[in-house]
Amino acid sequence: MSKRHLTKQQQRQIQRNQAKASNAVDQRQAEEFLATDDLGPAQSGRVIACFGTQVEVEPDPADESPAKRCHLRANLPSIVTGDRVIWQDGEPKGVVVAVQSRSSELCRPDNRGRLRPVAANIDCIVVVLAPLPEPHRNLVDRYLVAAEHQGITPILVMNKSDLVDDHNRDYLFDLLEDYQQLGYDCLQVSARSGDGIGRLSDRLDRITSVFVGQSGVGKSSLLNTLAPGTDTAVGALSEAVTKGTHTTTTARLFRLPNGGEVIDSPGIREFGLWHLDPADVADGFVEFRPLLGQCKFRDCRHMGSEPGCAIAEAMANGDLTQRRVESFRHIVQSLETAR
Ligand code: GDP
Ligand code: ZN
């Protein structure tokens, strides 16, 4: 016996009633806010930190006005650091009333492996490397693939240029030159001596960036050099983590005195690519792109044993470097092992 079905008309009536009920809840909550708080006019702003059900918003344009703690109006989509919002000022707290659409999202898996945005509206991923710890090209490739996959421009910054010597010079310069040839912007700087910091600061002007890279390459040192005083804020962040009011992926936006913004958090620094499938990895190797779809088999994995693989042929012809093709295969293998 089939279940009794609702007619189309009954379904529409139910939908209308549900919509009315949920609008009524919105309306009531908004009215409660408006009734209890003396709110100012709607204005635009940027979320510089998130604390559970509250966010810190900096008014636009970012001038002398301090950031303001804000409640969230009901029914807003989830908000992350870097979001551009419409908000109303109030005492003691303001209210975020709308979230503007994002130009980009930096995502990472949560504890259950589901991809979640951790920061929004990022223009540039700064991949930091250094003579020490010695840079592994495969790791650099991983960061680049992850950046390409998220559609965010990566640049390579080699910090600790003061540590370049006769022993490591050739290796490091070759490495940077290879990436430059692929079209990546590469800079050499030293947080310690200040060498190249002006150029880096110019490069970050008027955009929002994140710094990623191996532990110990000098990400904190660079942030502190670019924006003195950042360390106290980072300290405050970790204090909040221990009090349990944060997750470790909570990010904070810092303004650089010469212009530009950097979003930083432990979670962003560990930014990786374990959630990608092999096709995404291939697409993240920019020089492979013109060849993708040209292999004999549509589901070719370019791992070296497939006949008629356009990637393998291009490597044999010298159009692709063996190093990058091997790096691609290594990443695909390691993703499979991780699964
Ligand atoms: P992070 O883990 O990437 O944030 O790296 P840190 O900023 O904590 O730096 C790691 C170590 O490298 C520290 O001992 C810094 O003093 C040192 N360091 C950072 N930048 C430079 C630099 O430009 N030159 C040299 N020689 N050491 C640096
Ligand atoms: Zn292939």
- How large a portion of the residues is in β-strands, by DSSP E? 15-25%
Main sheet: strand order: 10-9-8-11-13-12
Distance between the terminal alpha carbons, to the nearest Å?
Answer: 44 Å
Cα gyration radius (Å): 24 Å
In N-to-C order, the SSE pattern is: HEEEEEEEEHEHEHEHHEEHHHH
CATH architecture of the largest domain: 3-Layer(aba) Sandwich
According to CATH, the homologous superfamily of the largest domain is: P-loop containing nucleotide triphosphate hydrolases
Low-confidence stretches: 232-249
For the secondary structure, the number of strands is: 13
Number of domains: 3
3D shape: flat
Query: Counting H and I runs of at least 4 residues, what is the number of helices?
Result: 10
| Main sheet attributes: strand count, strand direction, barrel closure | 6 strands, mixed
Describe it for me?
The chain has 339 residues and is an alpha/beta fold. The chain contains 10 helices and 13 strands. The longest helix has 29 residues. The two termini are 44 Å apart. The chain has 3 domains: 78 residues, Nucleic acid-binding proteins (OB fold (Dihydrolipoamide Acetyltransferase, E2P), Beta Barrel); 160 residues, P-loop containing nucleotide triphosphate hydrolases (Rossmann fold, 3-Layer(aba) Sandwich), CATH 3.40.50; 61 residues, Orthogonal Bundle (Ribonucleotide Reductase Protein R1, domain 1). The strands form 3 sheets. It has a 6-stranded mixed sheet with strand order 10-9-8-11-13-12, sandwiched between helices. The chain has a 5-stranded mixed beta barrel with strand order 1-2-3-5-4. A two-stranded antiparallel ribbon has the order 6-7. Strand 6 and strand 7 form a beta hairpin. Bound molecules: guanosine-5'-diphosphate and zinc ion. The site of zinc ion has 7 residues, from helix 9.
